[in-house]
Amino acid sequence: MRTNLVIMAAGIGSRFGQGIKQLEVMNKHEDGTKGEIIIDYSIYDAVAAGFDKIIFIIRKEIEDEFKEVIGNRIEKSLKEKGVEVAYAFQELDKLPHGFTIPKGRLKPWGTGHAVLCAKDQVDAPFVIINADDYYGKEAFVKLHDFLVDNYQKDQKSETYTLAMAGFILKNTISENGTVTRGVCVLDDAGKVKEVIETSGIKAKDDDKNKIICDDPEVSKWINPDSKVSMNMWACYEDFLAYLEEDFIKFLKDDSKDELKKEHLLPIIVDGLLKQNKVDLTAIETEDKWIGITYKEDADLARKEFKIMLDAGKYPKKLWD
Questions:
Q1: 47 versus 33: which is more confidently predicted?
Q2: How far is residue 14 from each of residues 22, 106, 133, 148, 193, measured CA to CA in Å?
Q3: pTM (2 d.p.)
Q4: CB under 8 A, 24+ apart: contacts of 141-145
Q5: β-pairing, 227-235 with 133-134?
Q6: Residue 60 has pLDDT above 80, yes or no
Q7: Is 65 helix (H, G, I), strand (E, B) or coil?
Q8: Are 38 and 24 in contact (CB under 8 A)?
Q9: Closest CA to 273 of 186, 198, 188
Q10: pLDDT tens figures, 194-229
């Protein structure tokens, strides 16, 4: 069965400072060629797991730099492996008929809108990831297998069939500031009952075994072993139709600031859960997340990749 990997790389990286965080090089090649970035490792793991189409969601203004740093560099190698590469563009004015950009709006519309921008490129069950997050090999294999194993179930079901990689919170925290995560409430069967988009998450300065966040209620029970979403979702094509409907409702909702509100995947999925319209499975992975939220995270990420490269987990150079 064909499967797509949708990579969200349009984020403006406002906390990162100068430069595009998705394009930070993680290692150097001895022959002087440009080293890999985090996306390289995600694509490498995804192809090994069985994905055969890569869809990059970017902004038009970074297209040339993006293709120079990664797209043109890997496209030939992927083609030889039978893997297609496609691009989709997330822009503020990519809106349903009848809607216009609110005056003064500069902020992107969010991850739900990003995936919707790739609708015309998606042609098979798909997994969504962030460009600036390293998820590990295990998650790609498990989510790919989920899509294959549950295809017939989704075709027959009146609810949406989704899965998410359930990361252990302590493996996803930045040492350089707070993070936002979709904190999950699970039942005994590993099904997700609620996804709470939670900001300000960090370990307490005086006790790394305790977690604090901006939500007072979540702070009462969140802990280092809580399961969180890192925006790694396994979906079928019918989910895109729901995104279209939900995005129109989102745009019409005047209860939130039209200059700042965002159409976010964890909130969208949680809305489906509240309506009992989704069967959402949390697939646990113990791999350590590596990501770049803050400028200081880049050096820590490079150290982690060096450890993996020295251990032989990846070849020194991923692509010919």
A1: 47
A2: 12, 12, 16, 37, 32
A3: 0.91
A4: 141/49, 142/283, 142/285, 143/49, 143/232, 143/234, 143/283, 144/3, 144/46, 144/49, 144/50, 144/51, 144/234
A5: unpaired
A6: yes
A7: helix
A8: yes
A9: 186
A10: 999 899 999 988 888 899 999 999 999 999 999 999
Look-up: residue for tokens 């094509």?
237
Whether 14 has a pLDDT exceeding 50, the answer reads no
Report how far apart, in Å, the C-alpha atoms of 201 and of each of 172, 181, 210 are.
10, 8, 11
Percent share of the chain, pLDDT over 70: 96
Tokens encoding 164: 């998410």
The two structure tokens encoding residue 300: 């820590």
Alpha-carbon separation of residue 129 from 57, 71, 234, 246 (angstroms): 10, 17, 9, 20
Judged by DSSP in three states, 146 sits in helix
154 band by pLDDT with thresholds 50, 70 and 90: confident
- Per-residue three-class SS string for 255-319: CCCCCCCCCCHHHHHHHHHHCCCEEEEEEEECCCCEECCCCCHHHHHHHHHHHHHHCCCCCCCCC
Name the 3-class secondary structure at 224: coil
